[in-house]
Design goal:
Distance between the termini: 16 Å
Number of helices: 4
Number of strands: 4
Order of helices and strands: EHEHHHEE
Oligomer: single chain
Radius of gyration: 15 Å
Largest sheet: 4 strands, antiparallel
CATH architecture: 2-Layer Sandwich
CATH class: Alpha Beta
Strand content: 25-35%
Length: 118
């Protein structure tokens, strides 16, 4: 088992209605999500079979479901929801999730990064 293996999915853009103010919760905004998943890829690297690794599309769909789902006040809550969904796959040792709110300011991008483990 290789403890240093990671699967990364970056630059996922989805639209959702999240934020503290009513205006943010009534108008879709763009969110950028990145996931860094600690996962042993050695078996998949040898077998070359999808069953032995993570299906990237399934991970993307879980993230999309959270961002496009019910409104949350904080991007911290979005990150927690995403981590919980992804860590339902017990083969994943840990998940580092970054959520960026790309359009909220004209100068700067607020974001949050969390790490959660199985």
């Amino acid at each position: 088992m290789s403890s240093g293996d990671h699967i990364r999915i970056t630059d996922l853009f989805f639209r959702g209605k999240h934020g503290v103010g009513d205006a943010e919760r009534n108008v879709e905004q763009e969110f950028l999500v990145e996931a860094d998943l600690s996962f042993d890829v050695q078996k998949a690297g040898t077998s070359d079979k999808l069953a032995d690794t993570l299906d990237y599309s399934e991970v993307r769909n879980k993230i999309r479901g959270v961002i496009e789902g019910p409104s949350r006040y904080l991007i911290e809550a979005l990150a927690e929801d995403i981590a919980k969904k992804i860590l339902e796959d017990k083969r994943i040792r840990s998940a580092e999730i970054t959520v960026k709110k790309t359009a909220v300011w004209k100068n700067g991008v607020p974001s949050v990064t969390i790490t959660r483990s199985n």
